[in-house]
Amino acid sequence: MERVTADLTAAMKAKEQARVDALRMAKAALKNKEIDKRSALDDAESAKVLQGLVKQREDSIEQFTKAGRMELVKKEADELEFIRAYLPAEASDEDIAAAVAKAIAETGATSAKDMGKVMKAALAVLQAAGKPADGKKVSEAVRAKLQG
Predict the structure, then answer these.
(1) What's the pLDDT score for residue 72?
(2) Are 42 and 30 contacting, i.e. CB atoms less than 8 angstroms apart?
(3) CA pair distance 51, 31, nearest whole angstrom
(4) Taking CA 119 as the corner, what is the angle to CA 116 and CA 123, rounded to the nearest 5 degrees?
(5) Cα 48 from Cα 37, distance rounded (Å)
(6) Cα–Cα distance between 51 and 46 in angstroms, integer?
């Protein structure tokens, strides 16, 4: 939260309106979560809030692209870039594959019926390693591994 506030001030002084807009939105989301929780957020909780904002931007980009609204796609892509700067690097495909393999071994999963258990274990492995991952990517990796 402190870093976002400091960067917001710097962006205002530099008159970078796109960055100011993105940081204000991020700060508001973090503040709202703090209010809901009724205490300060730790780094993991802050990252989760920012990941939600990233997901929203990705969905918006997809919808605006379908609608042919390229000016809005650019605006959302810029915001996405600013927000991602505050998140730890996402897990690579290799990291996801390794986590899925470990989760399958731990849970003893053999079929697609065990997908929920494997997903939970794989996401826990990735989170413990400090590498956040998109649930959709993990889900695809688990499905491919259990079916293949």
Answers:
(1) 94
(2) no
(3) 15
(4) 145
(5) 14
(6) 9
Give per-residue pLDDT as tens, 54-105: 999 999 999 999 999 999 999 999 999 999 888 877 788 888 888 888 888 8
Q: What is the pLDDT of residues 53-63, one digit of tens each?
A: 999 999 999 99
Give the integer Cα–Cα distance in Å for 115 and 129.
21
- pLDDT of 148 strictly over 70: no
Name the class of domain 93-147: mainly alpha
Q: Which of 22, 24, 26, 48 is nearest to 37 (CA)?
A: 48
Structural domain boundaries in the chain: 2-84, 93-147
**Considering only the top CATH level, what class is 2-84?**
mainly alpha
Ramachandran category for residue 15: left, alpha or beta (phi over 0 → left; psi -120 to 50 → alpha): left
Q: Do domains 2-84 and 93-147 have the same CATH topology?
A: no
* Dist. CA 125–CA 103, nearest whole Å: 8
Helix ranges (DSSP H) in 14-134: 17-37, 43-67, 70-84, 93-107, 115-128
